[in-house]
Design goal:
The chain has 6 helices and 6 strands. The protein has helices spanning 2-8, 26-33, 37-46, 63-68, 80-149, 175-183; strands at 15-16, 22-24, 53-55, 58-62, 155-156, 160-161. Mean pLDDT is 79; it is low at 1-12. This is Helix-turn-helix domain-containing protein. Residues 96-123 form a coiled coil. Residues 151-164 have a biased composition (Low complexity).
Length: 185
Protein backbone atom coordinates (compact mmCIF):
# COMPACT_ATOMS: atom_id res chain seq x y z
CA UNK A 1 0.00 0.00 0.00
CA UNK A 2 2.85 2.37 0.82
CA UNK A 3 4.27 1.78 -2.64
CA UNK A 4 0.91 2.68 -4.19
CA UNK A 5 0.71 5.87 -2.16
CA UNK A 6 4.29 6.81 -3.04
CA UNK A 7 3.62 6.12 -6.71
CA UNK A 8 0.56 8.37 -6.73
CA UNK A 9 2.30 11.31 -5.12
CA UNK A 10 4.18 13.66 -7.36
CA UNK A 11 4.70 17.09 -5.90
CA UNK A 12 7.08 19.99 -6.37
CA UNK A 13 7.59 20.30 -2.59
CA UNK A 14 8.63 16.67 -2.26
CA UNK A 15 12.15 15.93 -1.12
CA UNK A 16 13.22 12.29 -0.98
CA UNK A 17 14.78 10.97 2.22
CA UNK A 18 17.76 8.59 2.37
CA UNK A 19 15.46 5.64 1.47
CA UNK A 20 14.02 7.45 -1.53
CA UNK A 21 10.67 8.03 0.16
CA UNK A 22 9.13 11.50 -0.06
CA UNK A 23 9.46 14.13 2.66
CA UNK A 24 7.19 17.14 2.72
CA UNK A 25 7.03 20.55 4.30
CA UNK A 26 4.36 21.09 6.96
CA UNK A 27 2.08 22.94 4.51
CA UNK A 28 2.39 20.23 1.84
CA UNK A 29 1.86 17.47 4.39
CA UNK A 30 -1.25 19.25 5.65
CA UNK A 31 -2.61 19.45 2.10
CA UNK A 32 -1.95 15.75 1.40
CA UNK A 33 -3.38 14.65 4.76
CA UNK A 34 -6.52 16.79 4.51
CA UNK A 35 -5.84 18.64 7.77
CA UNK A 36 -4.78 22.15 8.66
CA UNK A 37 -1.17 23.23 8.87
CA UNK A 38 -1.76 23.96 12.56
CA UNK A 39 -2.75 20.33 13.14
CA UNK A 40 0.53 19.19 11.58
CA UNK A 41 2.47 21.76 13.68
CA UNK A 42 0.81 20.49 16.86
CA UNK A 43 1.73 16.90 15.97
CA UNK A 44 5.34 17.98 15.37
CA UNK A 45 5.44 19.87 18.69
CA UNK A 46 4.02 16.83 20.50
CA UNK A 47 6.68 14.60 18.91
CA UNK A 48 4.07 12.34 17.30
CA UNK A 49 5.67 12.35 13.83
CA UNK A 50 8.75 10.10 13.85
CA UNK A 51 11.59 11.20 11.61
CA UNK A 52 10.52 14.85 11.44
CA UNK A 53 13.58 17.03 10.83
CA UNK A 54 13.95 20.77 10.98
CA UNK A 55 15.68 21.94 7.81
CA UNK A 56 16.82 25.38 6.68
CA UNK A 57 13.46 25.98 4.94
CA UNK A 58 11.28 24.53 7.73
CA UNK A 59 10.20 21.07 8.75
CA UNK A 60 10.72 18.02 6.55
CA UNK A 61 8.22 15.29 7.35
CA UNK A 62 8.63 11.75 6.03
CA UNK A 63 5.59 10.01 4.59
CA UNK A 64 6.15 7.04 6.90
CA UNK A 65 6.19 9.40 9.92
CA UNK A 66 2.86 10.95 8.91
CA UNK A 67 1.28 7.52 8.49
CA UNK A 68 2.73 6.41 11.85
CA UNK A 69 1.22 9.52 13.46
CA UNK A 70 -2.19 8.42 12.21
CA UNK A 71 -2.67 10.84 9.33
CA UNK A 72 -4.48 9.54 6.25
CA UNK A 73 -2.34 10.55 3.28
CA UNK A 74 -4.03 11.46 -0.05
CA UNK A 75 -7.45 10.15 0.92
CA UNK A 76 -10.43 12.13 -0.29
CA UNK A 77 -11.89 14.55 2.21
CA UNK A 78 -15.14 13.50 3.84
CA UNK A 79 -18.37 14.70 2.23
CA UNK A 80 -20.09 17.80 3.56
CA UNK A 81 -22.72 15.66 5.28
CA UNK A 82 -20.07 14.38 7.68
CA UNK A 83 -19.35 17.94 8.75
CA UNK A 84 -22.99 18.36 9.67
CA UNK A 85 -22.77 15.06 11.50
CA UNK A 86 -19.72 16.35 13.38
CA UNK A 87 -21.63 19.53 14.27
CA UNK A 88 -24.50 17.42 15.59
CA UNK A 89 -22.03 15.34 17.61
CA UNK A 90 -20.52 18.52 19.09
CA UNK A 91 -24.00 19.73 20.02
CA UNK A 92 -24.77 16.35 21.56
CA UNK A 93 -21.54 16.46 23.56
CA UNK A 94 -22.40 19.95 24.80
CA UNK A 95 -25.90 18.81 25.74
CA UNK A 96 -24.46 15.77 27.51
CA UNK A 97 -21.99 17.98 29.38
CA UNK A 98 -24.84 20.28 30.39
CA UNK A 99 -26.91 17.33 31.57
CA UNK A 100 -23.96 15.89 33.50
CA UNK A 101 -23.47 19.24 35.24
CA UNK A 102 -27.18 19.33 36.08
CA UNK A 103 -27.01 15.78 37.47
CA UNK A 104 -24.04 16.76 39.66
CA UNK A 105 -25.97 19.82 40.88
CA UNK A 106 -29.04 17.73 41.71
CA UNK A 107 -26.92 15.11 43.47
CA UNK A 108 -25.41 17.89 45.60
CA UNK A 109 -28.88 19.22 46.45
CA UNK A 110 -30.02 15.69 47.33
CA UNK A 111 -27.04 15.20 49.64
CA UNK A 112 -27.75 18.55 51.34
CA UNK A 113 -31.45 17.69 51.74
CA UNK A 114 -30.60 14.28 53.20
CA UNK A 115 -28.17 15.88 55.66
CA UNK A 116 -30.81 18.43 56.69
CA UNK A 117 -33.39 15.67 57.16
CA UNK A 118 -30.93 13.73 59.33
CA UNK A 119 -30.29 16.83 61.45
CA UNK A 120 -34.05 17.37 61.83
CA UNK A 121 -34.55 13.72 62.80
CA UNK A 122 -31.78 13.96 65.42
CA UNK A 123 -33.28 17.19 66.82
CA UNK A 124 -36.75 15.61 66.97
CA UNK A 125 -35.33 12.54 68.77
CA UNK A 126 -33.54 14.78 71.29
CA UNK A 127 -36.76 16.77 71.90
CA UNK A 128 -38.69 13.53 72.48
CA UNK A 129 -36.05 12.36 74.96
CA UNK A 130 -36.20 15.68 76.83
CA UNK A 131 -40.02 15.53 76.95
CA UNK A 132 -39.94 11.94 78.27
CA UNK A 133 -37.41 12.92 80.97
CA UNK A 134 -39.55 15.91 81.92
CA UNK A 135 -42.59 13.61 82.28
CA UNK A 136 -40.57 11.25 84.52
CA UNK A 137 -39.46 14.17 86.71
CA UNK A 138 -43.03 15.49 87.02
CA UNK A 139 -44.30 12.02 88.00
CA UNK A 140 -41.50 11.59 90.58
CA UNK A 141 -42.22 15.00 92.08
CA UNK A 142 -45.96 14.27 92.21
CA UNK A 143 -45.27 10.97 93.97
CA UNK A 144 -42.95 12.68 96.46
CA UNK A 145 -45.59 15.33 97.14
CA UNK A 146 -48.22 12.65 97.73
CA UNK A 147 -45.89 10.89 100.18
CA UNK A 148 -45.17 14.09 102.08
CA UNK A 149 -48.79 15.08 102.37
CA UNK A 150 -50.11 11.56 103.04
CA UNK A 151 -49.62 11.84 106.80
CA UNK A 152 -51.66 15.03 107.18
CA UNK A 153 -54.80 14.05 105.38
CA UNK A 154 -56.75 11.19 104.03
CA UNK A 155 -56.02 9.80 100.66
CA UNK A 156 -58.87 10.37 98.24
CA UNK A 157 -59.61 7.84 95.54
CA UNK A 158 -57.25 8.28 92.61
CA UNK A 159 -54.15 8.84 94.74
CA UNK A 160 -54.69 12.48 95.67
CA UNK A 161 -54.81 13.85 99.19
CA UNK A 162 -58.20 15.08 100.42
CA UNK A 163 -58.15 18.62 101.71
CA UNK A 164 -58.20 19.06 105.51
CA UNK A 165 -60.27 21.54 107.38
CA UNK A 166 -58.04 24.16 108.93
CA UNK A 167 -57.18 23.51 112.59
CA UNK A 168 -57.20 26.32 115.06
CA UNK A 169 -53.73 27.59 115.74
CA UNK A 170 -52.22 26.45 119.03
CA UNK A 171 -51.13 28.98 121.50
CA UNK A 172 -47.47 29.12 121.86
CA UNK A 173 -46.37 28.60 125.38
CA UNK A 174 -43.25 29.74 127.02
CA UNK A 175 -40.61 27.69 128.83
CA UNK A 176 -42.51 27.48 132.07
CA UNK A 177 -45.69 26.26 130.36
CA UNK A 178 -43.85 23.54 128.53
CA UNK A 179 -42.20 22.33 131.73
CA UNK A 180 -45.57 22.12 133.41
CA UNK A 181 -46.96 20.13 130.48
CA UNK A 182 -43.95 17.81 130.55
CA UNK A 183 -44.28 17.12 134.30
CA UNK A 184 -47.88 16.33 133.88
CA UNK A 185 -49.55 19.25 135.37
Amino acid sequence: MLAQVVGMIVDMDTTPDHDGRPRWSAATAAKHCGVSRTTIQRAIAAGRIPGAERGPDGWLLPLSGLIAAGFAVDRPSPPDGDRDHARVEVEQVRAADHLAARVRELEQQLAETRAEAERDRAARYAAEQIAAERDRIIEAQAQALRMLTAGTGTVAPGGTVAPQSPQPPQRSRGLLGRLVDAIGG
